[in-house]
Amino acid sequence: MFIDSHCHLDFPELSERLPDILATMEANRVGRALCVAVDLPDFARVLKLAETYPHLYASVGVHPDYVETPEPTVEQLVELSNHPKVIAIGETGLDYFRLTGDLEWQRNRFRTHIEASRITRKPLIIHTRAASADTIDIMRAAGAGVEQGGAGGVMHCFTETLEVALAAVELGFYISFSGILTFKSAKQIQEVAKALPLERILIETDSPYLAPVPHRGKMNEPGWVKHVAEYLADLKQIPLAQVEQQTTENFCTLFNVTL
């Protein structure tokens, strides 16, 4: 089976098509998916999906792009994560691409998530865009690394350099590739994927965004994570079955899931 390690099935454009989306997952042997929270007001929708469907999981967190939203506390994140279907903290991190000015609030929010992860022992889902140096620095300083007593996690929808990827791997993190990997323009990301050991890689859709080739330009969905796996297998010149087995094992190891 394949596992989509990052999707947003609670978003209206996907939730209104849920029966078809779940059918496509089944047809493509995508047996599990992690529905990732982006703010606290909508967390109940994410959790409801995980409670309703045995093959869906949830995370809890507040995305760094969300400005006008309730700020999470460590205590809130710890309490909300105290549910067997909540397997991760996030998505969290830093994003300097869309926002400008004094972004210390964003860095503080990131630190809050890291502390909640350390307390709960649930891994982090990290988003970073145009902020990789600060992201890695805060991960180190706040103790996100496995050898620092943190729970580790995943750098989701990875678009950074091999140097950044290796710094994250050194901290015990996994690197997750989305449909971007299949884009002709994504040469740097493809080189990173080739260089990393398969044992540190996850696959995802980040749906409804970033549909992989051959569906590029359409609304993405978890069933299409198989195309990311297929491209990764071709890139590494290894059997698709090997990618399928190892990325599934990686997901289960990171998020403490038993299939």
TrEMBL record:
Binding site for a divalent metal cation 2: H127, H156
GO molecular function: DNA nuclease activity; hydrolase activity, acting on ester bonds; metal ion binding
Record-given protein name: TatD family deoxyribonuclease
Spans traversing the lipid bilayer: none
Binding site residues for a divalent metal cation 1: H6, H8, E91, D206
NCBIfam families cross-referenced by the UniProt entry: YchF/TatD family DNA exonuclease
Origin organism lineage: Bacteria, Pseudomonadati, Pseudomonadota, Betaproteobacteria, Burkholderiales
Source organism: Sapientia aquatica
CDD domains in the record: TatD_DNAse
